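Quick look at the format.
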Amino acid sequence: MPRLALLQSRAFPDKDEALSRHEELIRRAAADGARIVVTQELFLTPYFCRHEDPVLFDLADPLPGPVTERLGALAGELGIVLVSSLFEQRGPGLYHNTAAIHDADGSLLGLYRKSHIPQDPGFEEKFFFTPGDSDWPVWDTRFGKLGVLICWDQWYPEAARLMALGGAQLLVYPTAIGWLPEEKAELGAAQHTAWETVQRGHAVANGCFLAAVNRVGTEGETEFWGQSFVANPYGEVVARASAEREEILLHDIDFAAVEDFRRIWPFFRDRRIDLYGDLAKRWRG
């Protein structure tokens, strides 16, 4: 049963400090027995998508590049699988919200580029990110088969299903989600309930573990709500972080429970794949 660590953290003033502080967190997690470590979304920077400003594109890194080399060396040294969420410059004027997946020997297994890009007040992501074209890869790591999706992806059952159909035993979601002050009093509790409930449903429908790691702290007007969590195949929350504190959330993942659940609840067996063609349409009306 590999131990999973979710690094729920605040933002730091610059990338060098963020990387150094997260190296400390990663080492602490490994010292506590973690074998799979996941950062929050865009862990090297503040959540810069609050405003449309072209200067902020300078925060991006080439991937692979120096950042992934440093993270890979750390993963190899500690013998951990490391999932890190980064701002990628892929080419001239072409940028992605990207997760890098390193195996426990330090090798870069590949990149997942965020597929679903939101656009809301305080979350101006369509200005910065090109939708991903990395398909739905599942990473066969030393410590289990992982599906990696990013934040807004977590609302889409199709994405979770395709990862599970690729063999994922654990879905991980680096995340940056929070409240706007004008909405929190009326909608805050409902928004958080929706976020957690839809993901717990993905765990049940796909018979797998699911982990979402969010950031904490207030950046500009946005109050990130933390509450990173792990759900088991029954959708039960088996570990949850606080709403305010930086912390390392640990949980041991029993992958044998995934196969046990899928035998008892045979959703994959009973799917009517002959009837679902309209899912590829924008609308059936």
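Next, a different chain entirely:
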Amino acid sequence: MGVTLQGIGVLITGGSLGIGKAIAKACVDAGAGVLICARDQSALDSAKSELERIASPKQVIRARAADVSRSDDVSALVDFAMSELPNFSGLVNCAGITGPTGLLEEADIQEWILTIQVNLIGTMLTCRAVIPHFRKQAFGRIVNFSGGGATSPRPRFSAYAAAKTAVVRLTETLAQELNDTAISVNAIAPGAVNTRMLDDVLNAGSQLAGSAAYKQALKQKDSGGVPAEKAAELCVKLLSPESDGISGKLISAVWDSWDALLAHRKTVMEGDLYTLRRIVPKDRGLTWS
């Protein structure tokens, strides 16, 4: 028997397309009731119909249009989740946009700010809205999505990289704020998945995206990229009781051994494994005075 989310209610932002929809399907397959949100109502309706076709008659499937960068939308969304989802105890922050492509000094400032608002502020607002509910019921699971640029520079995608790095630090910080509760907060790096964001890079072209990023995008498009189901499988595991005791970690869906991580959770939680950190000379065997 696989990982089960039987009887759990999960809210998934950005759940109408790409990785978000793959996560919604995986959660439904694992027995969860789900609420998906996105800005595009027609895409939501289509995704909801797909989920209803694979759900059991007793599973709750809901969809609601919302802009996660707007606090009023997020408050209404979480109120809806609390009223509609039985045992609402899971949040997945998957909503995101690529933002402006090109050099910082040439980027449209409003698009740059909007990228931070959607990718970072949207994640913060949903976390902030669900935490009081999770505290009250003494249990909850939050999974945030990192992305390219979070662990290394990503030239010409500065807004996206800055936002996704901040999401990881927000994840680590919230985990410490909640370390005396049964609420976990983790982040996933999904890998190079072929989503709408890949199309954004290809549409931008090599002049804006840079030759290296554009060539990599072409290669990824041709290869098919990392299956979205890889990140979805990890997400379900982090939402499940199998991840008890793991919080504040950035986990790669592609490169990390999840089973080993869970088998060694005491060691993982006692140190700085799977976290952002600054490298100092002694880490590289250097003894500068």
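The chain has two domains: 9-191+228-271, 195-225.

See the schema section for token definitions.
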